[in-house]
Specification:
51% of the residues lie in helices and 16% in strands. It has 818 residues and is of the alpha+beta class. The protein has four domains: 168 residues, no CATH class; 192 residues, no CATH class; 179 residues, no CATH class; 203 residues, no CATH class. The radius of gyration is 34 Å and the shape is elongated. The two termini are 38 Å apart.
């Protein structure tokens, strides 16, 4: 083998033009596969970094007919499932939450994970120092404990002893009881500390059923299955229907059910199809590159026919020659694979700049040994497949015919030419499919960008702040704070408007709650709806430029002592009143299930004073949009975690230091965090569409280039091989235009065949593509026509160059050669 490798190296070095071309082609194609596989492996294939991850399941309630296909879980759900199921080894509730920690350099806003003490046991976590939460620390009054992540431990304490020390969180001291190891991660890479989750008696009561605020996870017992867990949860829900008949009709109409699924599957559900589609695109690029290499190897084999025949005639057996050819090809492809790994590593770093690391488990994406082994294995496989071409040729070689053909300039046989044509047609087909896919994603992205968000995004700055209950205990304190803050910010130079809201568009963790209209009669089987609920200050709609369709917006006259009011969007107005005016009508938020169909004596009525335009709150395009939104004035419905929205006359980012200064003047311990312009928020919501589109365009560009090169190479080689034939044709009277047309027709025939196969392939994957598209069909004629014109133009250029060369052949020179 060493002898074969040395000989193969000498041959490849001797034929450097072929070697460099093949290496670069392979390196680019394999680099794409290497980078994409590293992402797919980290996100989809690699098990979660916890013991026995296949036993982790996620549970959540669903009310599809109410417009809430995915809710979370209520506290009573948790205690019901603890008490009445036996398939789980452990169960836990958790959620992430922003908290403010007090440090010497000033207050900092970080992400904390609030969880029942059982969660760390469920995940089989082991502390790096200290201990984990004990069960009694999940009770009110005993929950002032905190566990730090390794990163926060080093940031705050420099890796020194921290167990037993206090850390101020939201102005309240918590005791540090443990440190988690650096490799431990759950829910989000942004989580910096863990806090025990406790519930008051009222939160556990039946009045809080279907008040869903918490994620829930369970670890199955050994041998238990997801199907068994689903069956037990379904049976529990059915028993609860009988226990609480006041919920039965409401929940039945809403389509209520609980979904139990693998935690890992749920974690990557939103990106699985996209990543597999991108991986398929990378493999198509590799196929095109492999076809190009195969054509090059076939051409090289034709030129080496006499050499191989001579070696066989001198006594070399077919096995010996086969081994040598195999060594050459595999050495070439593995070298290309090694170069592809290096390029793929660089490509992986480039992918993080376009948002790939924001995918679930994105922090785990790296070019590890698995990705390297896959890449080199893929390169070896390509080498073995490509090597079959010269091996098959040598095994069918007739020695005397090989020597005679060599004397006639090595003209290839008809079967060899047919194989090359089929390979080029397949390149065109693969390129066509990739171009169609990229074109559809690009057209879909354009449709998304054209969606009107329902407000004016330019020159708007947003930021979050959360006054802690330790310093702002009641509604009066919060209202005083918000009034002072808005007064100072509105006075800043360059600020044209400012307001506060519980959430701004394109944020997460929106509240939603059932709201009903006075006198509205639901049809039999009609479900309640749970629209978005927002609390906003006067000036909110004006700051964002949300259109007022009817009535008025909130004013300073809407106080806690005035008539309770509400503003709704057009979607809700149409649902409850159709084309009639909503102004002056009354709505209410049901206090309990008994008050859904019949308001109670203490029902708080809300007067509709305005109707505003529909706003895309969850994103320009989102499957999680609720059936409308309603707005409450903050003076009548206070809130603690708030978003500041500021509109400026020019660059809004320049206002950030001024706003921090004004906030510090009011409360120096209150941090301003998540500072972003509205345009930046929109960009973040588009990452899951922009990133696949950009990668698809890159893959399609490489495929287009390789297909063009492949078509040119085959036609150019055929012109060189048929030079004597063309000379004879011209000597017998054929004109240069006819020779030009003959070569061009052959190229166009390959193009047409490739188009046909590629169109059939695009039709075959249309259902997969439809899941990635918005506002455009998977067989959009405009996109397919544009792709056909682009590929046709490139192919025509590739065909015309060899055709032009053929038309310029001098018959005297061609006939006198050899």
């Amino acid at each position: 083998m060493l002898q074969d490798a040395r000989f193969a190296t000498r041959l490849l070095w001797k034929d450097r033009g072929f070697t460099i071309t093949a290496l670069l082609t392979l390196a680019v194609c394999i680099a794409a596969n290497s980078a994409i596989f590293a992402v797919v492996n980290a996100v989809l294939l690699r098990p979660l970094p916890v013991p026995e991850p296949e036993r982790l399941v996620l549970m959540y309630n669903s009310y599809p007919n109410a417009g809430v296909a995915r809710a979370s879980n209520g506290v009573p759900d948790y205690y019901d499932r603890l008490r009445e199921t036996d398939v789980f080894e452990e169960q836990a509730l958790f959620n992430t939450r922003g908290v403010t920690i007090g440090v010497e350099s000033g207050p900092q806003r970080i992400v904390a994970l609030l969880a029942r003490p059982s969660l760390l046991r469920l995940l089989r976590a082991r502390p790096l120092a200290g201990r984990l939460f004990q069960e009694n620390e999940g009770e009110a009054g005993q929950d002032r404990k905190v566990i730090l992540t390794d990163a926060l431990w080093h940031q705050l304490f420099g890796g020194r002893d921290a167990v037993g020390r206090d850390l101020r969180i939201n102005g309240v001291p918590y005791e540090v009881i443990g440190i988690l190891p650096p490799e431990f991660e759950f829910a989000s890479p942004d989580v910096r500390l863990w806090m025990p989750l406790s519930f008051a008696a009222e939160e556990k009561s039946d009045d809080r059923r279907h008040s869903n605020n918490w994620s829930m996870i369970g670890r199955l017992k050994p041998g238990a299955t997801v199907a068994q867990a689903q069956q037990q949860i379904d049976a529990l829900n059915a028993r609860n229907m009988e226990r609480f008949p006041q919920f039965r009709e409401i929940l039945t109409n809403a389509g209520f059910h609980t979904i139990v699924k693998s935690y890992q599957d749920d974690l990557v559900e939103g990106v699985r199809s996209t990543l597999y589609l991108l991986w398929a695109g990378a493999l198509f690029v590799l196929l095109i590159g492999a076809v190009n290499i195969t054509n090059l190897v076939m051409i090289r084999s034709s030129g080496r026919a006499r050499e191989l025949a001579t070696r066989q005639a001198l006594g070399a057996g077919l096995g010996r020659i086969t081994r040598q050819l195999l060594t050459e090809t595999v050495l070439l492809t593995v070298s290309g694979g090694a170069l592809g790994v290096l390029l793929g590593s660089g490509g992986l770093r480039l992918l993080t700049t376009i948002g790939v690391d924001r995918a679930p488990r994105g922090s785990e994406i790296r070019m590890d040994l698995t990705a390297v082994a896959f890449t080199l294995g893929l390169a070896t496989f390509v080498g073995l497949i490509v090597a079959l071409v010269p091996i098959f040729t040598i095994r069918r070689m007739n020695l005397s015919q090989a020597f005679r053909e060599e004397s006639r300039s090595g003209t290839s046989g008809r079967s060899t030419r047919l194989v090359r044509r089929l390979l080029v047609a397949s390149q065109v087909a693969f390129a066509f499919m990739l171009l169609v896919g990229a074109g559809l994603l690009f057209a879909s992205f354009e449709r998304v960008l054209a969606v009107e968000p329902g407000f004016v995004t330019e020159n708007v700055l947003t930021a979050r702040l959360s006054p802690p209950s330790s310093r702002y205990a009641g509604d009066a304190e919060i209202r005083t704070f918000t009034s002072r803050l808005l007064e100072r910010i509105r006075a800043l130079p360059g600020v044209t408007a400012a307001a506060l809201a519980s959430n701004a568009p394109f944020e997460e963790d929106y509240s939603d709650s059932v709201i009903l209209a006075e006198g509205y009669q639901m049809a039999p089987g009609e479900s309640l709806v749970s629209p978005y609920q927002l609390q906003v200050t006067p000036g909110y709609f004006e700051t964002l430029g949300i259109a007022t369709k009817e009535g008025r917006t909130f004013t300073d006259a809407d106080t806690e002592s005035s008539t309770p009011v509400v503003i709704i969007d057009e979607k809700l107005a149409r649902r409850f009143w159709g084309r009639n005016s909503a102004i002056g009508r009354r709505m209410y938020l049901p206090e309990s299930a008994e008050h859904v169909l019949k308001p109670g004596a203490n029902t708080r009525w809300l007067a509709v004073v305005g109707v505003v335009g529909d706003v895309r709150l969850a994103g320009l395009v989102s499957s999680n949009d609720r059936p409308g939104a309603y707005y409450l004035p903050t003076a009548q419905q206070s809130f603690r975690s708030m978003t500041l929205v500021v509109r400026s006359a020019a660059n809004p980012q320049a206002l950030t230091p001024l706003i921090r200064r004004e906030l510090g003047a009011i409360d120096p311990e209150l941090p301003l965090y998540a500072v972003q312009t509205m345009d930046e928020r929109i960009d973040q919501t588009l990452l899951d569409r922009r990133t696949p589109m950009l990668l698809a365009l890159v893959f399609a560009g490489v495929a287009l280039f390789l297909a063009g090169i492949g078509l040119y190479g085959v036609l150019a080689y055929q012109v060189a091989q048929r030079q004597r034939e063309i000379g004879i044709r011209m000597a017998l009277g054929s004109s240069a235009p006819r020779i030009f047309g003959m070569v061009l027709r052959e190229g166009l025939l390959l193009l047409v065949v490739g188009f046909g196969v590629g169109l059939a392939g695009a039709f075959g994957i249309r259902r997969i593509m439809e899941t990635q598209l918005y506002g455009v069909g998977a067989m959009d004629p405009t996109v397919i026509s544009a792709v056909g014109l682009l590929l046709g133009a490139v192919a025509m250029m590739a065909c015309m160059l060899p055709a032009r060369k053929a038309a310029r052949i001098d018959p005297l020179v061609a006939l006198n050669e050899q």
